[in-house]
Amino acid sequence: MSAKHPIIAITGSSGAGTTTTTNALMHIFRSLNINAAFVEGDSFHRYTRPEMDKKIREAEQLGKHISYFGSEANDFAALEKLFHDYADTGTGQTRRYLHTFDEAVPYNQLPGTFTPWQDINQNTDLLFYEGLHGGAVSDEHDVAKHVDLLIGMVPIINLEWIQKLIRDTNERGHSHQAVMGSIIRSMDDYINYITPQFSRTHINFQRVPTVDTSNPFSAKDIPSLDESFVVIRFRGIEDVNFPYYLQMIEGSFMSRMNTLVVPGGKMGLAMELLLRPLIEDIINTKRKITD
Questions:
Q1: pLDDT digits (tens, 9 = 90+) for 193-217
Q2: CA–CA distance, 280 with 286 (Å, rounded to integer)
Q3: CA distance 187 to 172
């Protein structure tokens, strides 16, 4: 952690809704005039898409599994180094993973490849990470210890699968069967590398639908926010003003001493109310040190 060069990370598995949270945070950054260095978690995949496809086939021949959730397919050393370097010096190296043709064309590259490594501008106010492993810990690496504010996005598992299936088939061109195979192949890594992160987060946002999602593999659409509740759990954050939030967010209630539940349609408002003062504290502390 670093008061001078803070790091904020959103962590959540593929299809968990981290992009929604990213949009809310970007709005907060603009309103507070924060210049953030944006880092995509997919940038730290170890393999290009063709290389990963080959690794998957090789693993299957050996009766093993490899997935984007695990350490074998991701460079935790490079990610931890970036967080360490940024916390220490305010810079570090990152790149982009190009998912689609639209993303790849400006770089004259194919989708499923990486852009070259580049240095982060030294004049940023904070580093903002969004991806799979913002709170990852393995036997050799501890990414989480460098993060000043760690936010988890954790829809219940059936909703997560629905979101992944619909996104990957509609937006990324994968077949329904291929996405189902990816979910099955990823289970061990999901249990060992993804879910433990949510015990390290400072805040978790867990969306729970109020419609039937009992068979996610036959779902035709994603339950809307208005068809959901959001369970918000706090850990290690002092002086949370729960009475204020209950007053400001209509329909909210507390289910435990550290847990606020809000209607899904109020999730954006809840994020603004909850995250803005935390980010203000982080950036005000930084500016006091650097001014």
A1: 999 999 999 999 999 999 998 888 8
A2: 10
A3: 21
Residues constituting the chain: 291
| Token digits of residue 201 | 């987060």
CA gap 291, 283 in Å, rounded: 12
Helical residues (DSSP H) of the chain, grouped into ranges: 18-31, 49-61, 76-89, 101-104, 157-170, 176-185, 187-189, 242-248, 267-290
Read off the pLDDT of each residue in 98-124 and give the average, rounded to a whole number: 91
Q: Is 33 within 8 Å of 54 (Cβ atoms)?
A: no
Rounded to the nearest angstrom, the gap between the alpha carbon of residue 209 and the centroid of all alpha carbons in its chain is 20
Least confident range from 89-98, 133-142, 181-190: namely 181-190
Report pLDDT for 50: 92
